[in-house]
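Run log // design_07
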């Protein structure tokens, strides 16, 4: 908020409070004056009646004896009172005995006849006392022992009352002005502070304190307005959901203060990359969002998204080292078929998510296909969560044989998880493992897998089958919580009484590269658990890592095996990998062996173990028992023959 707006707000608040106080004072003043008038007037009337009674009493003798002189003297005293402007005494027959007035008007000579030849205005004589607003006539009969001896008329003026009221009003107004000025002065500082506090609250409620950008609340409001504007003005707009790639690394390496600094700079750079009417907001954490108005078509939106990514690509000047981050963005073009800001944001978020999985530092447009995928992922997640809550209902383990390349003897099996969903459909691990990884369910699933493998081993043992080796797949996400995964694995094996050397844990190359991965791998090693590198050749394929982490086995990915022995390039790669592994004293397993030609080629290259449909598909424990028994009886027959 700039200084001008702040001044304006303080001024507005001052004017408002002055106006309201002034209005309150005016109402109080009016009420006070009305009260004062009513009280003073009734007091005045009371005094007048007392004065009339005194004059009446004094003039009885003059009336009885028809003494004009005495009457004139008595009535003359009325002029001394500021409330009485004239008076007249009438005898019992109604004729005037004496009168006194300030000369502006006259009393009639007789109470019976109002007419008089006098040019001056005559007082209209009422039958009884009558007051108007400014004065009136007080009429009082004078009695001596119940006999009427005359009548006293007093002409009364209330002007003194009004003068006093005016004085009073001026006094009150003076006091009120002084009080108002004082109060205004005393409270103006307080009001200034209140306005600032109000602004601060508003700032906190609608703006992000780190970047100064609008927060999610304000952004949703802006988005609602944008949707209405797009519909009204028929201009296209784009909603961007932005996630900062690798921001956690900045926070972890340089601390939260530097992290905040970077967030602030990201906000500034993004704002600079957009037009002035566009909106940028921080939704929370490392998530931002933007609305681009008048964007036109998708191509334009893509251009702006690219510009924003570029603006963030330059390193951020943090101490002691500069920081590098990227942006993953989901783009949603407006108008859309839904106007709910929450729905629109979720769609842009979904598109962002796809951008992230396609490799960071990129953007992706929302499409119906993304919507469908996210929906199905959500259904998968819910189903899997429930299955795990119910002790693994619908989940089971399949075992694929691994045979010695030379002798074709069973040397082990790979345990592969299977899931039959409630509707009876089999879901492939290629579908649900990534969902389990994204949602963190993989930890629970991994624990269930090892437990189930141990249970199956016991079942197989009961059927007379003792497996020499079992390979269990471990997702890199299972290593994220540190060496606790190794502790849990060991505890499980211990509980089932399984020896650790019967197990091989299959990790992908990416797990070796993960931050903190080395600690966990060391823990695997320390616990005596063997490590096999799954899908070797599809990742970093770093020999240095193989040595560093004391890997026991590598599994050549099936994509290299598929076109053997024809594909000369893959044949060369496979040969080199086998030779290198042998040199490093590693066992080599070839995955996806489907033909005899492949098996033969691998055998001659020196590959130790073969795994693939040619030798046996993944199968349930009971089928594995049959598979092993059948192979044994064939071997026996061959021996006999
Ligand atoms: P993976 O560990 O590389 O497993 C080998 C995959 O290749 C299996 O697919 C297997 O059925 C398939 N396969 C085996 N022989 C052949 C063949 O001759 N030809 C062809 N075309 N395919 C063959 P599946 O069972 O669908 O598993 C897919 C992936 O899911 C696994 O790849 C593994 O990464 C993951 N996965 C399976 N079970 C688990 C598990 O229990 N935990 C974890 N974390 N991941 C698992
Ligand atoms: Mg595997
Ligand atoms: Mg594999």
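design_07 sequence
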């Amino acid at each position: 908020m700039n200084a001008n707006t702040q001044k304006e707000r303080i001024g507005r608040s001052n004017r408002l409070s002055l106006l309201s106080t002034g209005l309150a004072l005016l109402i109080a003043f009016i009420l006070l004056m009305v009260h004062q008038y009513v009280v003073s007037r009734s007091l005045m009337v009371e005094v007048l009646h007392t004065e009339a009674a005194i004059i009446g009493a004094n003039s009885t003798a003059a009336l009885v004896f028809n003494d004009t002189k005495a009457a004139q003297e008595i009535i003359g005293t009325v002029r001394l009172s500021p409330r009485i402007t004239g008076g007249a005494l009438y005898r019992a027959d109604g004729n005037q005995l004496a009168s006194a007035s300030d000369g502006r008007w006259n009393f009639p000579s007789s109470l019976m006849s109002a007419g008089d030849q006098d040019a001056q205005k005559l007082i209209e004589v009422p039958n009884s006392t009558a007051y108007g607003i400014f004065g009136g006539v007080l009429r009082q009969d004078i009695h001596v022992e119940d006999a009427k001896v005359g009548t006293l008329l007093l002409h009364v003026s209330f002007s003194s009352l009004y003068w006093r009221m005016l004085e009073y009003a001026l006094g009150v107004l003076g006091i009120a002005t002084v009080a108002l000025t004082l109060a205004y002065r005393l409270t103006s500082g307080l009001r200034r502070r209140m306005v600032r506090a109000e602004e601060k609250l508003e700032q906190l409620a609608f703006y992000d304190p780190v970047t100064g950008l609008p927060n999610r609340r304000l952004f949703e409001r802006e988005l609602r307005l944008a949707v209405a504007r797009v519909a009204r003005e028929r201009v296209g707009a784009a909603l961007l959901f932005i996630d900062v790639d690798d921001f956690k690394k900045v926070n972890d390496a340089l601390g939260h203060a530097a992290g905040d600094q970077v967030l602030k700079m990201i906000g500034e750079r993004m704002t600079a990359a957009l037009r002035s009417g566009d909106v940028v907001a921080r939704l929370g954490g490392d998530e931002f969002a933007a609305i681009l108005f008048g964007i036109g078509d998708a191509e334009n939106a893509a251009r702006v998204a690219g510009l924003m990514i570029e603006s963030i690509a330059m390193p951020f000047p943090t101490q002691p080292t500069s920081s590098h981050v990227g942006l993953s963005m989901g783009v949603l073009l407006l108008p859309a078929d839904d106007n709910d800001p929450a729905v629109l944001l979720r769609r842009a978020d979904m598109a962002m998510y796809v951008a992230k999985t396609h490799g960071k530092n990129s953007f992706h447009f929302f499409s119906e296909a993304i919507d469908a995928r996210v929906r199905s992922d959500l259904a998968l997640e819910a189903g899997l969560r429930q299955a795990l809550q119910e002790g693994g209902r619908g989940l089971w383990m399949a075992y694929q044989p691994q045979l010695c390349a030379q002798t074709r003897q069973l040397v082990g099996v790979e345990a592969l998880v299977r899931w039959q969903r409630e509707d009876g459909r089999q879901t492939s691990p290629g579908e649900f493992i990534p969902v389990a990884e994204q949602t963190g369910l993989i930890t629970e699933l991994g624990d269930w897998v090892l437990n189930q493998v141990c249970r199956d081993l016991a079942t197989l043992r009961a059927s007379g089958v003792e497996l020499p080796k079992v390979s269990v797949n471990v997702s890199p996400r299972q290593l994220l919580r540190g060496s606790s995964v190794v502790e849990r694995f060991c505890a499980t094996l211990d509980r089932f009484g399984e020896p650790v050397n019967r197990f091989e844990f299959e990790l992908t190359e990416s797990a070796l590269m993960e931050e903190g991965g080395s600690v966990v791998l060391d823990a695997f090693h320390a616990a005596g658990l063997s490590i096999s590198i799954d899908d070797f050749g599809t990742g970093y394929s770093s020999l240095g890592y193989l040595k560093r982490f004391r890997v026991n086995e590598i599994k050549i990915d099936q994509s290299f095996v598929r076109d053997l022995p024809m594909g000369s390039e893959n044949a060369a790669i496979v040969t080199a990998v086998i030779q290198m592994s042998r040199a490093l004293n590693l066992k080599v397993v070839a995955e996806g062996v489907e033909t005899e030609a492949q098996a033969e080629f691998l055998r001659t290259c020196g590959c130790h173990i073969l795994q693939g449909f040619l030798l046996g598909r993944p199968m349930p424990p009971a089928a594995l028992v049959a598979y092993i028994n059948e192979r044994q009886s064939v071997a026996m027959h061959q021996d006999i023959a």
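Residues 203 and 209 are 8 Å apart (CA to CA).
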